[in-house]
Design a protein that fits this description.
Elements lengths: L2 E2 L5 H11 L7 H5 L3 H4 L9 H13 L4 E5 L5 H15 L4 E4 L12 H9 L4 E5 L6 H9 L3 E5 L13 E3 L14 H6 L8 H20 L10 H10 L6 H14 L5 H9 L9 H18 L2 H9 L3 H33 L8 E4 L8 H12 L3 E7 L2 E7 L6 H6 L8 E4 L3 E6 L7 H12 L12 E2 L7 H8 L13 E7 L2 E5 L5 E7 L5 E6 L16 E13 L2 E11 L1
Parallel strand pairs: 1-12, 2-3, 2-4, 4-5, 5-6, 7-8, 12-13, 16-18
Antiparallel strand pairs: 8-9, 9-11, 10-11, 13-17, 14-15, 15-16, 17-18
């Protein structure tokens, strides 16, 4: 049953929202004001951290050749920037950054690149956001005399690579934790959900903690790297609780200082005031641009944009990345038109599987997410890449995609992987025709969704409650994301004062309401029209509105408005 907010003040609303999230009263202050010093535990409690740090120090001292090898997405690329910046800080130059091409090389380590590294006499290979499943590749590297340190956050398989060291929170945490105080054991939970760049940050933290005095690094210098850790934590959609909340909270503070010229240029071109940057700007503006590099060109373009300190180069790179992102949006829009046309002719099942050999694989994760938003179902989307069919999947509610794919009959998929909420897969041309039927069968037999209605509001309020004071009360809980969603509010039986469709293609919706004092309240929905909901919207119509609060900062003006989630 929804609560109703009576005569709200900022303190009451903040407390209600904290209670709704199940946060105990004694933890309210910690949640609202996380501490960098107190809420991040000792990085050396992570499995193999000591071993990895010592080996990296030895490699630096001996001027050994090191490769930073990361994934090509908005988690892996910031992770590689973190390690790059650390090496530059200490004056170590015998390293290279290698980010595989999404199309030519694919995800993860592969044997041909190991052969290249062996030929180039690489001494130490450090992976970021990948490597935990690369059993044969790591074996080949280690057999050649090259050491491999894996830093990853993905689930290991039954066989774990025999790397020199593995830092992955999904592995059993070091036994040292079991001997610590009980209250400290609770803090280890945050480790489990660190993203790849979060682990990269913890690795640099550990290196500085052990050898910072030797390298003459000022205390706290690593905090400047929180911008990359925070960006990736938000972009990779890991739960924003425990350590992740600390990284996201302080990462945003560092990002707003605009110390990276490439990032500053990207945001400037997007019309975003960097000093007011929030988690939605990261999710909907920065992340797509970073990922566009690997989807449409080379991931190194994004790496260089994030890591350069040359203002002229930053402008040029940001121009190129922005253009590539525009091309990506055009491509996604065309695929979505085709997908929607197909889906309108089909019966919509509990899980949607859709594909076309002509669709570009690199953008299918975006397409899958858009279909999930539209149909509120788990979605699998595939396209052709070379001789195989590859795709992306996105979940809805509590459906665990890895569990779903793991339960399929043998040979249904050639390979698959990912998280509970997002993944990728490869299928044969012969088996793809049976994929939807098999997924639906497994879904009905084995998967209990426990699905929550994503449009469910947590509080009933009035239009009079849409105030700056209440917006500030809500923002105390930011940054919002996984496990800490932006609060949704129900406005019951309110009259539409005006309906407007805007944008070049008139594909965005703006509704205007009036509160009891006659003040106009705007509510907007992107890629929706007056006919997108259960009934056509028109002036004078009474509706129940589910929406969130947001601030629109544009052209130096700030406007409080509502973002439409659903209309009942």
């Amino acid at each position: 049953m929804l609560q109703s907010l009576n005569m709200p003040n900022h303190q009451d609303l903040t407390e209600i929202l904290l209670q709704n999230r199940g946060i105990e009263k004694e933890n309210w202050e910690k949640f609202l004001n996380p501490s960098y010093e107190d809420d991040l535990v000792d990085p050396f409690l992570l499995n193999d951290m000591e071993k990895a740090v010592v080996r990296i120090f030895e490699a630096i001292e001996a001027n050994e050749k090191i490769i930073i090898y990361s994934d090509y997405d908005s988690d892996g690329i910031p992770a590689s920037v973190i390690m790059h910046d650390f090496f530059k800080k200490i004056g170590f130059e015998n390293f290279s950054v290698y980010i595989p091409d999404r199309y030519d090389e694919g995800y993860g380590l592969y044997k041909e690149i190991i052969d290249t590294f062996i030929k180039d006499k690489v001494d130490l290979l450090i992976t970021f956001d990948l490597g935990i499943t690369a059993v044969s590749e790591v074996a080949k590297a280690e057999a050649s005399g090259m050491n491999v340190i894996i830093t990853d956050h993905h689930l290991p398989q039954a066989e774990v690579p025999r790397a020199y060291a593995i830092i992955d929170p999904k592995l059993e945490i070091d036994k040292k934790i079991k001997t610590t105080k009980k209250d400290n054991e609770e803090k280890q939970k945050g480790y489990q959900e660190l993203c790849g760049a979060g682990i990269a940050f913890r690795l640099v933290q550990a290196l500085i903690k052990k050898y910072g005095d030797y390298w003459k690094i000022n205390t706290g210098w690593e905090k400047w790297l929180l911008d990359m850790a925070g960006l990736a934590t938000i972009a990779d959609q890991v739960p924003l609780l425990e350590e992740n909340r600390v990284l996201a909270f302080y990462g945003l503070k560092v990002l707003r200082k605009g110390r990276r010229p490439g990032l500053a240029e990207l945001l400037k071109k997007a019309g975003i005031d960097i000093t007011k940057l929030n988690e939605e700007d990261i999710a909907f503006t920065l992340t797509p641009r970073i990922n566009a590099a690997s989807r449409m060109a080379s991931p190194m373009l994004a790496f260089e944009t994030l890591s350069t300190d040359d203002p002229a180069k930053a402008r040029s790179l940001a121009d190129e990345l922005s253009k590539i992102n525009d091309d990506r949006k055009y491509l996604v829009a065309n695929i979505m038109k085709e997908a929607n046309k197909t889906l309108k002719k089909r019966e919509i099942n509990d899980v949607i599987v859709i594909g076309n050999p002509k669709w570009r694989v690199g953008v299918l994760g975006i397409v899958a997410s858009k279909i999930v938003d539209e149909y509120k179902k788990p979605v699998f989307v595939w396209g052709a890449e070379g001789d195989s069919l590859k795709g992306s999947c996105r979940s809805f509610g509590e459906v665990n995609l890895v569990e779903l794919m793991s339960s399929l009959p043998q040979n249904s998929l050639i390979e698959f992987g990912g998280h509970k909420m997002a993944g990728g897969f490869t299928a044969s041309h012969e088996e793809i025709h049976f994929l939807e039927e098999r997924i639906l069968s497994v879904y009905k037999q084995k998967i209990t969704t426990g699905e929550e209605d994503k449009t469910e509001a947590e509080l009933v309020i009035d239009l009079d409650d849409v105030t700056d004071e209440n917006y500030k009360a809500i923002e105390k809980l930011a940054p919002f994301g996984m496990a800490n969603p932006r609060p949704k509010f129900m406005f019951k039986n309110i009259s539409i004062f005006g309906v407007k469709e805007f944008g070049k293609e008139k594909n965005h919706l703006e509704l205007i309401f009036k509160n009891n004092r006659g003040r106009q309240i705007k509510a907007i929905a992107f890629f929706k029209t007056a006919d997108s909901f259960k009934r056509p919207l028109s002036e004078g119509l009474k509706i129940d509105l589910i929406a969130t609060f947001e601030k629109n900062n544009f052209a130096g003006r700030s406007e409080l408005r509502l973002r439409i989630i659903d209309i009942l």
